[in-house]
Amino acid sequence: MSAFRCGTVAIAGRPNTGKSSLLNKLVGQKIAIVSPKAQTTRHSVNGILSTAACQYVFVDLPGYQTRHVNVLNRALNRTATDGARDCDVVVFVVEAARYGAPDREVLARIPGEQRVVAVVNKVDLVKHQLELLPFLERLQQERAFAAIVPVSARSGRNLPELLRVLAALLPEGPAAYPVDQLTDRDERFFAAEILREKLFLLLGEELPYRCDVSLESFQDEPPKGRGKGLRRIEATIWIERESQKPIVIGAGGELLKRVSTAARKDMERLFEGKVYLGVWVKVKRDWTGDERLLRQLGYR
Ligand SMILES: Nc1nc2c(ncn2[C@@H]2O[C@H](COP(=O)(O)OP(=O)(O)OP(=O)(O)O)[C@@H](O)[C@H]2O)c(=O)[nH]1
Ligand SMILES: [Mg+2]
To answer: Does 63 sit in the ligand 1 pocket, CB within 6 Å?
Structure first.
């Protein structure tokens, strides 16, 4: 029998290629938030998959981007670049039949000595698989990839092959985490992320990039009488200026209510019990451009 392997696999790529979706599908649990908007991920999060032969520690990274230039995006790009350096293998995610300057820029930032597996995601969107061949051949010219694996994070297609390829590239060694552990983050982190995901899904095109979420309290209340207790979660949505408040809250508070109801339902599913979610909207003036405020919000 071959030896047990364990290592970190950073998931890198330009925004919106499906990195977080891939992590979730590989681990079999929704660990990372997902939205159709670019730059949804802001904090790296580990998703751990333990099999009989291997423990994969996947690290979901923010999509490296050049579109919005501000202090927040510089911090996100730093997280993305550092993550692709400090790991055993990089999975470089591109979209099927779409490869351009933003992808090339990410690839250029992955250190030359790093082992890189190119993952061509969203193959479910390609009607005729033969059309992929010229794309795969062109991609091969971009770097000496350890492998190129076409997959669909949505359908799960070819993910077993990706796992085989990755296992062979990981170092031999004992498991770094208990085999039943799924992530390195705690429940507070997921509660804040769930709320941020709803902002990405329900606010317009620009506003999600002006919002952040922090948790004020997270408490378990014991059951009154029979049944399960209640989780009482208080969260703040931070915006950049006062004029954004009515947009986030919506007419008669309707939008904020939709956001917080959707978030509460997801939290109840994740925490397997009743949740009370209180949400406030507050201003941290120009937080996306202020390093000190960013650190307060948990960015590096
Ligand atoms: N059709 C299809 N859509 C996918 C697939 N994987 C992801 N998506 C969609 O692509 C969009 C972006 O997915 P994310 O997982 O948030 O992408 P990301 O790379 O993590 O994005 P950032 O965090 O913003 O960098 C979402 O609308 C996903 O549902 C796939 O295999 N097929
Ligand atoms: Mg993401």
So the answer is: yes
Q: Hey, what amino acid is at 90?
A: V
* 84 in Cβ contact with 35 (< 8 Å): no
Rounded distance between C-alpha atoms, residue 185 and residue 77, angstroms: 20
- Atom nearest to 24 CA in ligand 1: 15
In CATH terms, are 5-169 and 187-296 the same topology?
no
Residue boundaries of the structural domains of the chain: 5-169, 187-296
CA 18 to ligand 1 center in whole angstroms: 3
Q: Give the pLDDT of residue 1.
A: 63
DSSP code at position 7: E
Residue recorded with tokens 């009989």: 52
The CA–CA distances, whole Å, from 293 to 3, 148, 240 equal 47, 41, 11
pLDDT in tens, 14-24: 999 999 999 99
Give the pLDDT confidence of 160-192 residue by residue, as tens digits. Answer: 999 999 999 999 999 999 999 999 999 999 999
Q: Taking a C-beta distance cutoff of 8 angstroms, is the pair 100, 85 a contact?
A: no
Length of the chain, in residues: 300
Of 132, 130, 131, give the one whose Cα is nearest residue 120. Answer: 132
Angle between helix axes 71-85 and 101-109 (nearest 10 degrees) is 60
Q: What are phi and psi of 66, to 5 degrees?
A: -125, 5
Architecture of domain 187-296: 2-Layer Sandwich (3.30)
Architecture category of domain 5-169 in CATH = 3-Layer(aba) Sandwich (3.40)
pLDDT at 225 over 90: no
Q: Is the C-alpha dihedral spanning 106, 109, 113, 114 positive or negative?
A: negative
Whether 121 is in the pocket of ligand 1, judged by its Cβ within 6 Å, is yes
State the chain's mean pLDDT as an integer: 95
Q: How many CB atoms lie within 10 A of CB 205?
A: 7
